[in-house]
Write a structure and sequence with these properties.
With 475 residues, the protein is an alpha/beta fold. The protein has 2 domains: 268 residues, Aldehyde Dehydrogenase, Chain A, domain 1, CATH 3.40.605; 189 residues, Aldehyde Dehydrogenase, Chain A, domain 2 (3-Layer(aba) Sandwich), CATH 3.40.309. It has 13 helices and 20 strands. Helix 8 links the parallel strand 12 and strand 13. It is globular and about 70 Å long. It starts with 6 loop residues before the first strand and ends with a strand. Bound molecules: nicotinamide-adenine-dinucleotide (NAD). Nicotinamide-adenine-dinucleotide (NAD) binds next to helix 6 and helix 7.
Length: 475
């Protein structure tokens, strides 16, 4: 049922023969479902050389050709979404409807880049001298190396691949070893859509070895990474030592601020459900809940009711609302956050423990009476544990929300236009969602500030990281 796993280099799917491998485990059952080949150094060099050779042609391809391939990929992704989603549930754990939804929604990234690829405009600068023509050209940067994580395996890979290929670059992408099926499905989509060999290469391996090798390669010009801030800083430093361009989509610890004047019950329900999407393993998950004192009791009642009623189980069962965590590391991290909260006098009002002997399940949890310097309020939880704290006024909550070095997303519920204006200006975050959740659409820029990253994916900004600017002056 679960697909055969491979590497994809220079247009060929390469199996396990002669390579080390890693087992792929279903996080709901802990059964081994597949064996993933790990790339050798020779494989990585073959991929880089293939990407470089392909770039020499692909950079001059017509935007219409690139656009047509990306459109075909989007169409095939929608057709294959049930199967790709099912395999993603098996290796990643998220409920089937979330996994299939990830594929159908994120097919739009291929569509969006197909559209924007036809609009990579340069400009003409009026000259001081009538005989001089001054042009600004935007050209593909070259071979890109990208690294994507295990929480949204389809989403994160298709965004980076579509941006690189749409811009006229070629790419080697290291997918997540624990959840490889969706990334390989993307390779198959591009293969079947007629992408020339070498333009896209998919590898897996020991992450630190692969990234060190690819970033140091003189043929690789750009690095794009989605993952933790700690690893992002290491890769950014390495890229800096080789003077390579970077896009970094890193961690967050997003404040969700609910003011007294909000529709409090609706805010509580929306935030509880959004928090538990993908079991909280979402970089933009609302994860620090600040509620104004007058609304606190009412919010907490509704929020805990919704969180406490969520059905946890194997994502393949249609009644499941929240699946297991993707790996044992996340369960251990949740236990650490709960232990630290309790040691500091915090109260666990819902959940607080793992909830099955088999599989990486952790109960949706709510913690109150917790200080802003606790682990739960300062370290990205990346799991289904939600701290709820009270605040008194706007200036206070903005100072507390902005206190961390993270600056990815933020959520605000208020009926006051004045408050909405103030938070949208003063929150230190790459994205501000007011009274609804609206980030991560293909046509809107997605990215963080401060320690949460550099650069945007999506929106009209999407090709900025994949293009270089060249000035041409001619008499
Ligand atoms: P981790 O920090 O070891 O790894 C995070 C990701 O980076 C993984 O996909 C991993 O394969 C990759 N990685 C690690 N070292 C690398 C290296 N030297 N070169 C290239 N890639 C490397 O931790 P983890 O246990 O896998 O994940 C836990 C933390 O990662 C979470 O707490 C969360 O902060 C972060 N994370 C963030 C995102 C995101 O979307 N921003 C996604 C997944 C994980």
């Amino acid at each position: 049922m679960y697909p055969e796993l491979s590497l994809y280099i220079n247009g060929e799917f390469l199996g396990i023969e002669g390579r080390r491998h890693q087992d792929v485990v279903n996080p709901a059952t802990e059964e081994v479902v597949g064996r993933l080949p790990l790339a050798t150094r020779e494989d990585l060099d073959t991929a880089v050389e293939a990407a470089h050779r392909a770039f020499l042609t692909w950079r001059d391809s017509s935007p219409l050709e690139r656009s047509a391939i990306l459109r075909k990929v989007a169409e095939l992704a929608r057709q294959r979404a049930p199967e790709i989603g099912r395999n993603m549930t098996i290796d990643q754990g998220k409920p089937l409807h979330e996994a299939v939804g990830e594929v159908t929604v994120c097919a739009e990234h291929a569509d969006w880049h197909a559209e924007e690829a036809r609009r990579i405009y340069g400009r003409v600068i009026p000259s001081r001298n009538p005989n001089v023509r001054q042009l600004v050209l935007r050209q593909p940067v070259g071979v890109c190396a990208a690294f994507t994580p295990w929480n949204f395996p389809f989403n994160q890979a298709i965004r980076k691949i579509s941006a690189a290929l749409g811009a006229g670059c070629t790419i080697i992408l290291k997918g997540p070893e624990e959840t490889p099926s969706a990334v390989l499905a993307i390779a198959q989509l591009f293969h079947d859509a007629g992408l020339p060999p070498g333009c896209l290469n998919i590898v897996f391996g020991v992450p630190a070895e692969v990234s060190a090798h690819l970033i140091a390669s003189p043929l690789v010009q750009k690095i794009s990474f989605t993952g933790s801030t700690a690893v992002g800083k290491q890769l950014a430093a390495l890229a800096g030592s080789h003077m390579k361009r970077i896009t970094m989509e890193l961690g967050g610890h997003s404040p969700a601020i609910v003011f007294d004047d909000a529709d409090v019950d609706t805010a509580a329900e929306m935030l509880a459900n959004y928090k538990l999407r993908n079991a909280g393993q979402v970089c933009v998950s609302p994860s620090r809940f600040f509620v104004q004192r007058g609304a606190y009791d009412r919010f907490l009642r509704r929020f805990t009711d919704v969180i406490g009623a969520v059905r946890v189980g194997n994502g393949i069962d249609s009644s499941t609302q929240m699946g297991p965590l993707a790996n044992q590391r996340r369960v251990a991290a949740m236990e650490g956050l709960i232990a630290d909260s309790k040691a500091r006098g915090g109260k666990v009002v819902v959940g607080g423990t793992r909830c099955s002997d088999t599989g990486h399940f952790f109960a949706p949890s709510v913690v109150i009476d917790i200080s802003d310097d606790s682990m739960l309020m300062t370290c990205e939880p990346f799991g289904p544990v939600a701290p709820v704290v009270a605040f008194d006024d706007l200036d206070e909550v903005l100072a507390r929300a902005n206190k961390l070095t993270y600056g990815l997303s933020s959520y605000v519920f208020t009926e006051s236009a004045k408050t909405a204006h103030a938070v949208s200006t003063r929150l230190e975050a790459g994205m501000v969602n007011i009274n609804h959740f609206g980030s991560a659409l293909a046509e809107t820029p997605f990215g963080g500030i401060k320690d949460s990253g550099i650069g945007s994916e999506g929106g009209t900004e999407t090709f900025d990281g994949y293009l270089v600017t060249k000035f041409v002056t001619q008499v």
